[in-house]
Amino acid sequence: MAQLSVEEVGRYGRQLILPEWGRRGQESVKGNSVLIVGVGGLGCPCALYLAAAGIGRLGLLDYDRVELSNLHRQVLHCENRVGVAKSESGRDAVKGLNSHISVTTHTVLLDSSNALSILSQYDIIVDATDNVATRYLLNDGCVLLGKPLVSGSALRFEGQLTVYGWRGGPCYRCLFPSPPPPASVTNCSEGGVLGVVPGVIGSLQALEALKIASGMEPLYSQQLLLFDALGGGFRTIRLRPRQPQCAVCGENPSITALIDYELFCGSRADDKDKRVDILDPELRVSPQEYSEVVSGGKPHLLLDVREEVEYQICHLPHSRSILPQFRSTTCVCLYIRKSEQVLPEPHVTFQTFLCATSKMAPWMPPGSGYWKPHPQLMTPPIPCL
Ligand SMILES: [Zn+2]
Protein backbone atom coordinates (compact mmCIF):
# COMPACT_ATOMS: atom_id res chain seq x y z
CA MET A 1 0.00 0.00 0.00
CA ALA A 2 1.24 3.49 -0.87
CA GLN A 3 2.75 5.49 1.99
CA LEU A 4 1.73 9.06 2.78
CA SER A 5 4.33 11.81 3.07
CA VAL A 6 4.21 14.31 5.94
CA GLU A 7 2.93 16.94 3.55
CA GLU A 8 0.16 14.63 2.35
CA VAL A 9 -0.89 13.89 5.93
CA GLY A 10 -1.33 17.63 6.44
CA ARG A 11 -3.13 18.10 3.11
CA TYR A 12 -5.65 15.31 3.61
CA GLY A 13 -6.01 15.78 7.39
CA ARG A 14 -9.73 16.63 7.34
CA GLN A 15 -10.60 13.33 5.68
CA LEU A 16 -7.90 11.31 7.45
CA ILE A 17 -9.68 11.90 10.76
CA LEU A 18 -12.87 10.31 9.47
CA PRO A 19 -13.08 6.93 11.24
CA GLU A 20 -14.55 5.25 8.16
CA TRP A 21 -11.73 6.58 6.00
CA GLY A 22 -8.59 7.01 8.08
CA ARG A 23 -4.98 6.53 7.01
CA ARG A 24 -5.75 3.14 5.53
CA GLY A 25 -8.43 4.59 3.23
CA GLN A 26 -6.20 7.47 2.15
CA GLU A 27 -3.26 5.17 1.39
CA SER A 28 -5.56 2.87 -0.55
CA VAL A 29 -6.81 5.81 -2.63
CA LYS A 30 -3.22 6.85 -3.30
CA GLY A 31 -2.48 3.35 -4.54
CA ASN A 32 -5.42 3.30 -6.95
CA SER A 33 -5.96 4.67 -10.42
CA VAL A 34 -9.10 5.96 -12.12
CA LEU A 35 -9.75 6.55 -15.82
CA ILE A 36 -12.33 9.22 -16.63
CA VAL A 37 -13.71 8.75 -20.13
CA GLY A 38 -15.04 12.12 -21.26
CA VAL A 39 -13.60 15.33 -19.79
CA GLY A 40 -16.88 17.20 -20.14
CA GLY A 41 -19.78 18.14 -17.89
CA LEU A 42 -19.55 14.96 -15.83
CA GLY A 43 -15.83 14.29 -16.14
CA CYS A 44 -14.70 17.76 -15.02
CA PRO A 45 -16.22 17.79 -11.50
CA CYS A 46 -15.37 14.12 -11.13
CA ALA A 47 -11.72 14.77 -11.97
CA LEU A 48 -11.59 17.76 -9.62
CA TYR A 49 -12.75 15.79 -6.59
CA LEU A 50 -10.68 12.72 -7.39
CA ALA A 51 -7.58 14.90 -7.72
CA ALA A 52 -8.38 16.90 -4.61
CA ALA A 53 -8.96 13.71 -2.61
CA GLY A 54 -5.54 12.34 -3.60
CA ILE A 55 -6.22 9.58 -6.12
CA GLY A 56 -2.85 8.09 -7.01
CA ARG A 57 -3.16 8.20 -10.78
CA LEU A 58 -5.80 9.85 -12.90
CA GLY A 59 -6.39 9.14 -16.58
CA LEU A 60 -8.22 11.76 -18.63
CA LEU A 61 -9.56 10.59 -21.98
CA ASP A 62 -11.24 12.86 -24.50
CA TYR A 63 -10.79 13.29 -28.25
CA ASP A 64 -12.35 16.76 -28.31
CA ARG A 65 -11.17 20.35 -27.81
CA VAL A 66 -12.52 23.02 -25.47
CA GLU A 67 -15.23 25.27 -26.90
CA LEU A 68 -16.78 28.38 -25.41
CA SER A 69 -20.16 26.64 -25.19
CA ASN A 70 -18.60 24.03 -22.87
CA LEU A 71 -17.66 26.41 -20.10
CA HIS A 72 -21.04 26.71 -18.37
CA ARG A 73 -20.72 23.12 -17.17
CA GLN A 74 -17.19 21.84 -17.92
CA VAL A 75 -15.59 23.58 -14.97
CA LEU A 76 -12.02 22.33 -15.44
CA HIS A 77 -11.65 24.38 -18.59
CA CYS A 78 -11.40 28.14 -18.89
CA GLU A 79 -11.54 30.91 -21.47
CA ASN A 80 -7.84 30.98 -22.21
CA ARG A 81 -7.85 27.25 -22.99
CA VAL A 82 -10.56 27.36 -25.67
CA GLY A 83 -9.21 25.33 -28.57
CA VAL A 84 -6.95 23.21 -26.34
CA ALA A 85 -7.49 19.44 -26.12
CA LYS A 86 -9.84 18.75 -23.21
CA SER A 87 -7.58 16.03 -21.84
CA GLU A 88 -4.66 18.48 -21.67
CA SER A 89 -6.76 21.35 -20.32
CA GLY A 90 -8.09 18.99 -17.65
CA ARG A 91 -4.60 17.81 -16.78
CA ASP A 92 -3.35 21.38 -16.31
CA ALA A 93 -6.31 22.17 -14.07
CA VAL A 94 -6.04 19.16 -11.76
CA LYS A 95 -2.25 19.37 -11.55
CA GLY A 96 -2.70 22.95 -10.38
CA LEU A 97 -5.04 21.68 -7.70
CA ASN A 98 -2.88 18.77 -6.53
CA SER A 99 0.70 18.28 -7.73
CA HIS A 100 1.02 15.01 -5.77
CA ILE A 101 -1.11 13.02 -8.17
CA SER A 102 -0.03 11.52 -11.47
CA VAL A 103 -2.12 12.42 -14.53
CA THR A 104 -2.09 10.62 -17.87
CA THR A 105 -3.85 12.08 -20.88
CA HIS A 106 -5.41 10.11 -23.72
CA THR A 107 -6.38 12.42 -26.58
CA VAL A 108 -8.12 9.77 -28.65
CA LEU A 109 -11.61 8.63 -29.57
CA LEU A 110 -12.11 5.42 -27.64
CA ASP A 111 -12.99 2.51 -29.92
CA SER A 112 -12.68 -1.25 -30.12
CA SER A 113 -9.09 -1.07 -31.32
CA ASN A 114 -7.71 0.89 -28.35
CA ALA A 115 -10.18 0.43 -25.49
CA LEU A 116 -8.79 -2.69 -23.84
CA SER A 117 -5.20 -1.48 -23.86
CA ILE A 118 -6.23 1.83 -22.26
CA LEU A 119 -8.80 0.50 -19.77
CA SER A 120 -6.41 -2.20 -18.58
CA GLN A 121 -4.05 0.49 -17.23
CA TYR A 122 -6.57 1.56 -14.54
CA ASP A 123 -8.34 0.07 -11.53
CA ILE A 124 -11.66 1.92 -11.84
CA ILE A 125 -13.38 3.32 -14.93
CA VAL A 126 -15.72 6.34 -14.91
CA ASP A 127 -18.14 6.65 -17.81
CA ALA A 128 -18.63 10.38 -18.28
CA THR A 129 -19.63 10.17 -21.94
CA ASP A 130 -22.92 11.03 -23.57
CA ASN A 131 -23.45 8.49 -26.31
CA VAL A 132 -24.83 4.98 -26.38
CA ALA A 133 -22.10 3.39 -28.51
CA THR A 134 -19.39 4.34 -26.01
CA ARG A 135 -21.53 3.12 -23.10
CA TYR A 136 -21.68 -0.37 -24.63
CA LEU A 137 -17.99 -0.23 -25.48
CA LEU A 138 -17.02 0.73 -21.92
CA ASN A 139 -19.39 -1.81 -20.43
CA ASP A 140 -18.05 -4.70 -22.49
CA GLY A 141 -14.45 -3.64 -21.96
CA CYS A 142 -14.94 -3.42 -18.19
CA VAL A 143 -16.68 -6.81 -18.05
CA LEU A 144 -13.92 -8.45 -20.10
CA LEU A 145 -11.26 -6.88 -17.87
CA GLY A 146 -13.17 -7.33 -14.59
CA LYS A 147 -13.20 -3.61 -13.71
CA PRO A 148 -15.97 -1.63 -11.98
CA LEU A 149 -17.68 1.01 -14.13
CA VAL A 150 -19.08 4.14 -12.48
CA SER A 151 -21.65 5.40 -14.92
CA GLY A 152 -23.39 8.77 -14.97
CA SER A 153 -25.56 10.82 -17.27
CA ALA A 154 -27.14 14.25 -17.25
CA LEU A 155 -29.61 15.92 -19.58
CA ARG A 156 -31.74 19.01 -19.17
CA PHE A 157 -32.68 19.02 -15.46
CA GLU A 158 -32.18 15.30 -14.81
CA GLY A 159 -29.28 13.12 -13.85
CA GLN A 160 -28.65 9.39 -13.29
CA LEU A 161 -25.92 7.40 -11.61
CA THR A 162 -25.13 3.72 -11.08
CA VAL A 163 -22.15 1.39 -10.71
CA TYR A 164 -21.92 -1.57 -13.08
CA GLY A 165 -20.08 -4.81 -12.62
CA TRP A 166 -19.39 -4.45 -8.92
CA ARG A 167 -19.04 -7.78 -7.08
CA GLY A 168 -21.65 -9.75 -9.00
CA GLY A 169 -23.88 -6.79 -9.78
CA PRO A 170 -25.44 -6.27 -13.19
CA CYS A 171 -23.69 -4.76 -16.18
CA TYR A 172 -25.17 -2.28 -18.63
CA ARG A 173 -26.15 -5.08 -21.01
CA CYS A 174 -28.00 -6.93 -18.23
CA LEU A 175 -30.31 -3.91 -18.09
CA PHE A 176 -30.26 -2.93 -21.76
CA PRO A 177 -29.54 -5.98 -23.95
CA SER A 178 -30.36 -3.98 -27.08
CA PRO A 179 -29.50 -0.38 -27.90
CA PRO A 180 -32.32 2.15 -28.21
CA PRO A 181 -33.33 3.41 -31.66
CA PRO A 182 -30.77 6.09 -32.61
CA ALA A 183 -33.49 8.68 -33.25
CA SER A 184 -34.78 8.32 -29.67
CA VAL A 185 -31.48 9.33 -28.10
CA THR A 186 -30.91 12.96 -27.21
CA ASN A 187 -27.67 14.49 -26.00
CA CYS A 188 -26.81 17.79 -24.33
CA SER A 189 -26.04 19.58 -27.57
CA GLU A 190 -29.58 18.87 -28.77
CA GLY A 191 -31.63 18.70 -25.57
CA GLY A 192 -29.71 21.18 -23.45
CA VAL A 193 -28.53 20.83 -19.86
CA LEU A 194 -28.29 23.15 -16.88
CA GLY A 195 -24.60 23.21 -15.94
CA VAL A 196 -25.00 22.35 -12.28
CA VAL A 197 -26.84 19.08 -13.05
CA PRO A 198 -23.79 17.26 -14.48
CA GLY A 199 -21.87 18.97 -11.68
CA VAL A 200 -23.98 17.11 -9.11
CA ILE A 201 -23.80 13.75 -10.92
CA GLY A 202 -20.08 14.05 -11.73
CA SER A 203 -19.33 14.82 -8.08
CA LEU A 204 -21.30 11.72 -7.04
CA GLN A 205 -19.35 9.65 -9.57
CA ALA A 206 -16.18 10.84 -7.85
CA LEU A 207 -17.67 9.82 -4.51
CA GLU A 208 -18.48 6.32 -5.76
CA ALA A 209 -15.02 5.93 -7.33
CA LEU A 210 -13.37 7.11 -4.11
CA LYS A 211 -15.39 4.67 -2.02
CA ILE A 212 -14.26 1.80 -4.21
CA ALA A 213 -10.65 3.05 -4.21
CA SER A 214 -10.62 3.42 -0.42
CA GLY A 215 -12.00 -0.06 0.20
CA MET A 216 -15.53 1.06 1.10
CA GLU A 217 -18.64 -0.19 -0.64
CA PRO A 218 -20.20 1.97 -3.37
CA LEU A 219 -23.81 2.95 -2.71
CA TYR A 220 -25.22 2.46 -6.16
CA SER A 221 -24.35 -1.05 -7.27
CA GLN A 222 -27.59 -2.60 -8.59
CA GLN A 223 -29.26 0.67 -7.71
CA LEU A 224 -29.96 3.68 -9.89
CA LEU A 225 -29.91 7.18 -8.46
CA LEU A 226 -32.30 9.58 -10.17
CA PHE A 227 -31.80 13.30 -9.70
CA ASP A 228 -34.62 15.67 -10.63
CA ALA A 229 -33.31 19.20 -10.42
CA LEU A 230 -36.67 20.74 -11.26
CA GLY A 231 -38.95 19.40 -8.60
CA GLY A 232 -38.20 15.99 -7.14
CA GLY A 233 -34.72 15.93 -5.63
CA PHE A 234 -33.13 12.46 -5.32
CA ARG A 235 -34.75 9.06 -5.72
CA THR A 236 -33.20 5.59 -5.77
CA ILE A 237 -34.64 2.60 -7.59
CA ARG A 238 -33.43 -0.97 -7.36
CA LEU A 239 -32.19 -2.49 -10.60
CA ARG A 240 -32.58 -6.06 -11.77
CA PRO A 241 -29.68 -8.34 -10.77
CA ARG A 242 -27.06 -9.73 -13.12
CA GLN A 243 -28.75 -11.75 -15.87
CA PRO A 244 -27.44 -15.29 -16.45
CA GLN A 245 -28.31 -14.93 -20.15
CA CYS A 246 -26.45 -11.60 -20.55
CA ALA A 247 -24.47 -11.54 -23.78
CA VAL A 248 -21.26 -10.38 -22.11
CA CYS A 249 -21.37 -11.15 -18.36
CA GLY A 250 -23.76 -14.12 -18.48
CA GLU A 251 -22.99 -17.81 -18.04
CA ASN A 252 -22.46 -18.46 -21.75
CA PRO A 253 -21.42 -15.11 -23.17
CA SER A 254 -21.63 -14.60 -26.92
CA ILE A 255 -19.45 -11.49 -26.70
CA THR A 256 -15.91 -12.45 -25.75
CA ALA A 257 -14.12 -9.62 -27.55
CA LEU A 258 -14.99 -6.03 -28.38
CA ILE A 259 -17.25 -5.54 -31.39
CA ASP A 260 -18.09 -2.63 -33.72
CA TYR A 261 -20.25 -0.51 -31.40
CA GLU A 262 -21.22 2.13 -33.93
CA LEU A 263 -22.59 -0.64 -36.12
CA PHE A 264 -24.26 -2.34 -33.14
CA CYS A 265 -25.96 0.88 -31.99
CA GLY A 266 -26.54 2.46 -35.39
CA SER A 267 -25.12 5.72 -34.05
CA ARG A 268 -21.77 7.37 -33.77
CA ALA A 269 -19.49 7.21 -30.75
CA ASP A 270 -19.26 10.98 -30.49
CA ASP A 271 -21.67 13.89 -30.24
CA LYS A 272 -20.57 15.66 -33.38
CA ASP A 273 -22.98 14.44 -35.94
CA LYS A 274 -26.34 12.95 -35.17
CA ARG A 275 -27.54 11.07 -38.20
CA VAL A 276 -30.64 12.79 -39.43
CA ASP A 277 -32.95 11.30 -41.98
CA ILE A 278 -33.40 14.33 -44.19
CA LEU A 279 -35.18 14.71 -47.47
CA ASP A 280 -33.59 14.64 -50.87
CA PRO A 281 -31.97 17.94 -51.93
CA GLU A 282 -34.68 18.69 -54.49
CA LEU A 283 -37.30 18.60 -51.73
CA ARG A 284 -35.46 21.08 -49.55
CA VAL A 285 -35.13 24.86 -49.74
CA SER A 286 -31.57 26.08 -49.88
CA PRO A 287 -30.55 29.39 -48.29
CA GLN A 288 -29.86 30.71 -51.79
CA GLU A 289 -33.35 29.78 -52.98
CA TYR A 290 -34.95 31.39 -49.98
CA SER A 291 -32.82 34.48 -50.43
CA GLU A 292 -34.19 34.79 -53.97
CA VAL A 293 -37.75 34.49 -52.63
CA VAL A 294 -37.11 37.32 -50.18
CA SER A 295 -35.18 39.57 -52.56
CA GLY A 296 -37.77 38.97 -55.28
CA GLY A 297 -40.50 40.17 -52.98
CA LYS A 298 -42.57 37.01 -53.42
CA PRO A 299 -45.41 36.77 -50.89
CA HIS A 300 -44.86 33.75 -48.73
CA LEU A 301 -45.20 32.35 -45.26
CA LEU A 302 -42.10 31.07 -43.47
CA LEU A 303 -42.81 28.62 -40.67
CA ASP A 304 -40.13 27.89 -38.08
CA VAL A 305 -40.57 24.39 -36.66
CA ARG A 306 -37.82 24.49 -34.06
CA GLU A 307 -38.53 24.56 -30.35
CA GLU A 308 -39.96 27.82 -29.10
CA VAL A 309 -36.85 28.58 -27.03
CA GLU A 310 -34.71 28.23 -30.13
CA TYR A 311 -37.05 30.59 -31.94
CA GLN A 312 -36.65 33.07 -29.09
CA ILE A 313 -32.84 32.90 -29.33
CA CYS A 314 -32.85 33.84 -33.00
CA HIS A 315 -35.09 33.59 -36.02
CA LEU A 316 -35.39 34.88 -39.54
CA PRO A 317 -37.36 38.10 -40.05
CA HIS A 318 -41.09 37.58 -40.71
CA SER A 319 -40.96 33.90 -39.78
CA ARG A 320 -43.64 32.42 -37.55
CA SER A 321 -43.10 29.83 -34.86
CA ILE A 322 -45.28 26.85 -35.64
CA LEU A 323 -47.87 25.70 -33.13
CA PRO A 324 -46.32 23.29 -30.58
CA GLN A 325 -48.74 20.46 -31.35
CA PHE A 326 -47.58 20.42 -34.95
CA ARG A 327 -43.91 20.56 -34.26
CA SER A 328 -41.99 17.46 -35.26
CA THR A 329 -38.47 16.24 -34.73
CA THR A 330 -38.53 15.00 -38.30
CA CYS A 331 -38.27 18.21 -40.22
CA VAL A 332 -38.82 18.57 -43.89
CA CYS A 333 -38.95 21.61 -46.01
CA LEU A 334 -41.18 21.91 -49.02
CA TYR A 335 -41.14 24.75 -51.44
CA ILE A 336 -44.42 25.03 -53.22
CA ARG A 337 -44.76 27.37 -56.13
CA LYS A 338 -48.03 28.88 -57.31
CA SER A 339 -49.70 27.40 -54.33
CA GLU A 340 -53.09 28.96 -54.92
CA GLN A 341 -53.92 25.88 -56.91
CA VAL A 342 -52.37 23.55 -54.39
CA LEU A 343 -53.77 24.70 -51.09
CA PRO A 344 -57.39 23.61 -50.85
CA GLU A 345 -58.46 25.93 -48.08
CA PRO A 346 -60.32 28.95 -49.56
CA HIS A 347 -58.93 31.39 -47.04
CA VAL A 348 -55.33 30.48 -47.80
CA THR A 349 -54.09 32.77 -50.49
CA PHE A 350 -50.32 32.58 -50.27
CA GLN A 351 -48.78 32.58 -53.70
CA THR A 352 -45.61 31.04 -52.46
CA PHE A 353 -45.61 28.78 -49.51
CA LEU A 354 -42.56 27.78 -47.59
CA CYS A 355 -43.25 25.29 -44.93
CA ALA A 356 -41.64 22.73 -42.71
CA THR A 357 -42.57 19.65 -40.66
CA SER A 358 -43.73 16.35 -42.01
CA LYS A 359 -47.16 16.76 -40.47
CA MET A 360 -48.12 19.45 -42.93
CA ALA A 361 -47.88 17.31 -46.00
CA PRO A 362 -51.53 16.19 -46.34
CA TRP A 363 -52.40 19.80 -46.88
CA MET A 364 -50.99 19.41 -50.31
CA PRO A 365 -52.54 16.90 -52.67
CA PRO A 366 -50.13 14.34 -54.07
CA GLY A 367 -49.68 14.17 -57.76
CA SER A 368 -50.31 17.87 -58.21
CA GLY A 369 -46.89 18.37 -59.61
CA TYR A 370 -45.92 20.70 -56.83
CA TRP A 371 -44.49 18.24 -54.39
CA LYS A 372 -43.27 14.67 -54.23
CA PRO A 373 -44.82 12.17 -51.85
CA HIS A 374 -42.31 10.98 -49.28
CA PRO A 375 -42.50 8.30 -46.57
CA GLN A 376 -41.84 10.91 -43.92
CA LEU A 377 -44.95 12.86 -44.82
CA MET A 378 -47.83 11.87 -42.59
CA THR A 379 -51.11 13.12 -41.11
CA PRO A 380 -52.63 15.25 -39.74
CA PRO A 381 -52.86 18.52 -41.67
CA ILE A 382 -51.98 21.79 -40.05
CA PRO A 383 -54.89 24.18 -39.50
CA CYS A 384 -54.94 27.30 -41.59
CA LEU A 385 -53.14 30.24 -40.08
ZN1 LIG B 1 -24.42 -8.31 -18.02
Automatic annotation (TrEMBL):
Domain Rhodanese: 296-322
Entry annotated with the keyword Nucleotidyltransferase: yes
A matching Pfam family: ThiF
Keywords: ATP-binding, Molybdenum cofactor biosynthesis, Nucleotide-binding, Nucleotidyltransferase, Transferase
GO CC aspect terms: cytoplasm
SUPFAM superfamilies, sorted: Activating enzymes of the ubiquitin-like proteins (SSF69572)
Molecular functions per Gene Ontology: ATP binding; nucleotidyltransferase activity; thiosulfate-cyanide sulfurtransferase activity; URM1 activating enzyme activity
Any GO BP: tRNA wobble position uridine thiolation
NCBIfam families, per database record: PRK05690.1 (NF004281)
PANTHER family according to UniProt: ADENYLYLTRANSFERASE AND SULFURTRANSFERASE MOCS3, UBIQUITIN-ACTIVATING ENZYME E1
Protein name (Swiss-Prot/TrEMBL): Adenylyltransferase and sulfurtransferase MOCS3
